[in-house]
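Task 17 of the worksheet. Students: predict the tertiary structure of the chain below and write it out as structure tokens. Keep your answer in the requested format; marks are given for formatting as well as content.
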Amino acid sequence: MKKAQTAILTVTLNPALDLSTATDVVQAGPKLRCDMPRYDPGGGGINISRAVAILGGESTAFVALGGATGAQLEQLLRTESVAIVQITAPGETRVSFAVTERGSLAQYRFVLPGPLWSPQSISTAIEAISVAAQPHGFVVVSGSQPPGVPDDFIRMLGAVLPQTVRLIADTSGASLRAVTAGGGAALDTIRMDAEEAELLAQAPLANRVNSADFAQALVRRGSAERVIIARGADGSVMATATHRWFCKAAEVPIKSKIGAGDSFVAGFVLALARGLSEPEALGFGVAAASAAVMTPATELCRQTDAEALVALCPVSAV
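Model answer:
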């Protein structure tokens, strides 16, 4: 039986068909004989919707798809019973390619840019997202933006969404700099990893207190109601204007780090959508991320693992 929750809409303008395989050694020159490939629908928002479904929740994935690759990705999403709202992308959906070297377990990831978007395509997408968003629900924008989409796209979207919609951003690079600059209505949540946070801070964030200080400074600047900084195997810090928390990551065997961030966001937003408190949502997000690193290749978290790991992911004040 599904638990009651508010609506979650994930947004992926630059989805990818994720292809993963393995070979003995990655080296230049000879042909590298690989395992049979695995195909997964990919892109930040798509992976969050997939993980929400794995964790027993419901969401709708807003996706821009194009060409034969887009059709294949759409079929994979429907196979996983992920509800979608689809618009036509201005070009062929991209492919991402990941190879695991068996001997070292190192992962090599090749990511293509995606099609070029025009101003008209961007306006069409913003209007369609605002229609698909549910009052009092969540809109989660995650992953890279395709070429042509302005750095401040998330702020542009936030300006047209109903005030009751809670906007969450998990982005990087120029898009992250734009979304943390403030101006206009604050987002509900911004998430970033430690490396991205240090680039923004232009200083090392050597410990949890440093991360919490910077996250809270962004909140008080008006960037978002809460900011989360993922500190890798250490765990995650979350700050609001008045509170700061740290959640320790569970110590688990690591098979692949791919999908950990998306699993975190899925657990976090699903917990909020179910009415859990901020610390509880942080804990469930970290548990889902910890569960994701236990799975191979591009596989996301597993529900039984995530639920079992909550007890091993304590939340405390910073």
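Marker's comment: The chain is about 35% helix and 25% strand. The radius of gyration is 19 Å.
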